[in-house]
Every structure is written in C-alpha cells, then in structure tokens.
Design a protein that fits this description.
The protein is low in regular secondary structure and 84 residues long. It has strands at 21-23, 29-31. It has one domain. β1 and β2 (29-31) form a beta hairpin.
C-alpha cells in the first residue's frame, strides 16, 4: 500500500489526489495539472477509464505526490526533476 503524501490516500484505491494546488520554491501557489489536461504527460488522452501508469490517478484527477508523470505547473517539465 502506497499512500500519497498530499492526500494521505492509498494510491491504488482512489481516483486521484484531492490536493489541487502546490506551493513551489518561489513561495507562489500554482494550480496543479490534472491527468490528460494541457501540458500533462498524458495530454490529449480521451479514454475516460485511463489511469496514470505510475500513481494510478484516473483521467481528469490529479497525480499523487511523487508521481513521475506529474508536470510542474510553472515550467511544464517533470515536477520531480525541476527546480521550481
């Protein structure tokens, strides 16, 4: 069982993370990018049953903390490897 550090839910038993905003290193608050939305790793995916291969978030929901597919809302690069 892997729990999300943001929402504290089991990643395999829910549709996605409930946290819709992030505070980045510049201390500003940013809206998160949902699975399948513009700039997301899965941008353009239309299958309503689609889930992220890493964190299991369902299309239209937010990736869980530490997901390797989550995109930074500021620089639009991979969140876990950007400096934002």
């Amino acid at each position: 069982m892997a729990k999300c550090e943001y929402c504290n839910k089991d990643m395999l038993e829910c549709d996605g993370c409930d946290t819709n905003q992030l505070i980045l290193n510049d201390s500003n608050v940013y809206d998160r990018i949902a699975v399948g939305d513009k700039y997301d790793f899965y941008d353009g995916t239309e299958d309503e049953e689609f889930r992220c291969h890493d964190c299991n978030a369902l299309l239209g929901n937010y990736h869980h903390a530490g997901c390797d597919c989550e995109i930074c809302p500021k620089c639009h690069q991979q969140l876990i490897s950007c400096d934002c």
